[in-house]
Amino acid sequence: MGKFKQTKRILYLGGKDGERLYLNDLKFKMADGTRVRVKKTMIPGKNSKDLIARSKGRYALLGLFSRPGYRVLDFPCGSGYVADFLKEFGIKYEGKECDKITVEYAKRMYGGSNTHFSFGDLCSSKLKIKYYDTIGCIEGLEHIDKEYQEPLIAELYSALKPGGTLIISSPENTEGVSGSSKVNPYHKWELTKNDFLNLLYTKFKSEEVVIVSYKVVLSYGAQLTTCFFGICHKEYEKEK
Questions:
Q1: Confidence of residue 6 (pLDDT cuts 50, 70, 90)
Q2: How far apart are alpha carbons 88 and 188 in whole angstroms?
Q3: Which residues share a beta bridge with 36?
């Protein structure tokens, strides 16, 4: 009886995937032998150039609060393309993402001496205390259940150095009340503006929080949605 060679599965990422943006094709093999083929994101019916511009543009706020030598956390980091954008600022970039295969893609595409990627779960992050100068949590908050959102804010606050800045986003729930999205199955808990602010106020003082908003048609759905960006400054410690 002949022997059959066992082959590992092949996983396909990117292409029509509207939740993670992949800017380049890539083939690689995971440590367990799983072969991965990533295709550049191309969503039918969507303007790809507009999608990429909007996705990159959100992170200009991170650049505003980046300086040479700063430790900057991007969580969730998705496919890691922000690291390529922010490297010109001379920062020490760290990206965390809950999908291990996407983490491997990011390492291979954008990893470097000052750029590191690792697994991270927004629901149980366990970050270093007072470690980061700037933290970006962009298009992550809405992907976790309500019960995890306040603990996440507390964790991000603790991870910031005194005087550090958190930039965090959330799409407004189009139903007019906070809750799960009726349009995007991946959005577990979208917030109203008031609920978003009140969430941030659980750790940050109201005078240290600024909201920026814009309207856009997201990857899922066809109607304009308001997206909020909270710019939150952690107080400096008082001298004793």
A1: very low
A2: 34
A3: 11, 28
User: What phi and psi, each to the nearest 5 degrees, are found at residue 183?
Assistant: -110, -45
DSSP lists the bridge partners of residue 190 as 179
Contact assessment for residue 79 and residue 17, using Cβ atoms and an 8 Å cutoff: no
CATH number of the domain at 47-233, please?
3.40.50.150
Q: What is the pLDDT of residues 133-147, one digit of tens each?
A: 999 999 999 999 999
Reported for 58-61, long-range contacts at CB under 8 A and 24+ positions apart, including other chains, are 58/138, 58/139, 58/169, 58/229, 59/85, 59/86, 59/136, 59/138, 61/136, 61/167, 61/212, 61/229, 61/231
Specify the 3-state DSSP secondary structure of 227. Answer: strand
Q: Fill in the DSSP letter of residue 172.
A: B
Paired with 10 in beta bridges are: 35
CB-CB neighbours of 177 under 10 Å: 10
